[in-house]
Amino acid sequence: MKTKKRKIKQILMIFIAIILLFSIYLNTFLLIKYNVLPLKYLIIYFVLVGFIPFVLIYFTVFPRIKPLLKNILAIIEVIYILLLFIVFSYLNQTFNFLDDFTSGFKYETKNYYVLVASDNKYDEINDLNNKSIGYASGLDISVNHAIEKIDDIITLNHVEHDGFSLMLNELYDGTLDSILIVQSYYDLLTENDETIEENTKIIYKFSIKEKVNEIVKDVDVTKENFNVYVSGIDSYGNVTDKTRSDVNIVMSVNPVTNKILMINIPRDYYVELDGFAQKDKLTHAGMYGVEVSAKTIENLLGIEINYYVKVNYNALIKLVDALGGVNVYSKYAFNTHENHYPIREGYNYVNGEKALDFVRTRKAFLDGDRVRGENQQAMIKAIIEKASDVSILLKYDEILKSLDGSFSTNISTNKIMSLVNMQLDSMPSWKIDSVSLNGSDAHGLTYTYPGQELYIMIPDEAVLEDVKNKLDNM
Known about the structure:
Elements: H1 2-33, H2 39-61, H3 67-101, E1 107-117, E2 131-136, H4 143-151, E3 156-161, H5 164-173, E4 178-182, H6 183-192, H7 195-199, E5 200-211, E6 226-233, E7 245-254, E8 259-264, E9 270-272, E10 279-281, H8 282-285, H9 290-301, E11 307-311, H10 313-322, E12 326-330, E13 334-335, E14 342-343, E15 346-350, H11 352-360, H12 368-387, H13 396-402, E16 407-409, H14 413-426, E17 431-436, E18 439-444, E19 454-459, H15 461-473
Parallel strand pairs: 2-3, 2-4, 6-11, 8-17
Antiparallel strand pairs: 1-4, 1-5, 6-7, 7-8, 9-10, 11-16, 12-15, 13-14, 18-19
Helix pairs in contact: 1-2, 1-3, 2-3, 10-11, 10-13, 11-12
């Protein structure tokens, strides 16, 4: 009987040893594959997770030692297994997240609406069979693909126009039965003319995909200066949506001097959009794709954009809520524009919804977009400070899930892990400087909204030149 118990116990010890070896293998595989740890930490790792566990396995499986001591060593092995599987869970979740979101996206999405007059009898797309639909090809090179998609559903008489003003008038007087319009342009129109929402109704929505022209310019991020374009789009939908970019920040990173220069570019900056003949607001560049925004900024600042990060409204709301709120500094006391939350001068504790209102508000200030840019930078700093707290590890899973579908970047996982490795190796302190481009208030014609003058900001060439010099000094 005792012999049988000893055999069962021996089998159990071997089973525990196998599980321990397997857990060591899983963690070691991930650490080496993603180059997480610098050499000095790898040595410590192999001592703690290599040498010691193997000693434990040797004394629990092979030698004849006292049963009590063997039991204690087996318990230590089980503790090791639990710790290693916890570490593996964190590592695996992190790398899966990074692999999903660091490859950028191959396609961006254009969302389309079919509009009819609000007082007519059409309520769904099938009601328009053999009716007329107007569209403007001059402002949307993809509109023919959208027309083809509708043609797969019903038969329509296509009426091409140069712009939307005449189309809207014809829709109102009954000359046109419907209008096809891209969502981002509809949002732009309704922002400048609130009567459009009252006089029209959306009876059909659909999307088409467009291939993204990749803009990666790879460098050794541990040894060479690199520039990251942060684009915050004015959308609660998918981060792949082609829509206006309300936040435009360039982060110039020097990994040798450990300096970061954060440059805010106002959304209404009057610039030459890359590939377009007429000047426009920078925010409108996002309607033509993230690569147009990036190349436009390259031309403006005289730099290369190496990578981009694109986020939408949901990303900020979910991330701040997942962090348990953040303390953000405000230079001014004001009420937010959307929900009229009171913000006091100094530090303010905000949840996700208040955070979004904080970074979107501009009409509460005389300097409008300039102050909004400063507040956006302040929010980034607040998030970094909160995310650096060790206690955030307890919310790790929630934080990663908060970014699902709301965040994308073309910085590869390997590049990010190289930076992590460098940081762990020398633990440098980073100095972050913030600057904002400035200009003079004006009204002017834009490529995207022809026929009506909109508010624009004419670049201050002296400020622009100073920022370029700062970039050179990086």
